[in-house]
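The protein record passed on below.

***
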Amino acid sequence: MNRDTLILGVEEYVTLQKLLDDFTYRANTHSSMISSLSGQLLVSSGFKTPFNLLAISALIAGVFQSTRELARLIGEKKFVTFFQEGENWNIYYTLIEEDLLLATFFDDRTILGMVEVQAKKLSKRVREVFKK
């Protein structure tokens, strides 16, 4: 992956897609995506509901970037994980690599702790892919 432009090679894309599919299954979430901090959607998994993935990716990146500034203002180095709870959907998003975000969508049948554990495992695996 070229970090400046976030261009994935075929092998990186296929590996990232498999890792995300595995995460979505193991975490028991409805759907997931990996995006860049600039909002570029890289891979998605499980989306059957007609969400606008490109808009969601861009908005999540924007929320994440704005909270970085909030962290700075209150003396934190950065925030890396966010959880939003709605009436029907919950969204958990976290930094999984220096410039990559994981966002996953789930309902009340999913246990947040399982999402967090699986996100940490995914983060480690993604780092291994890009070390090569």
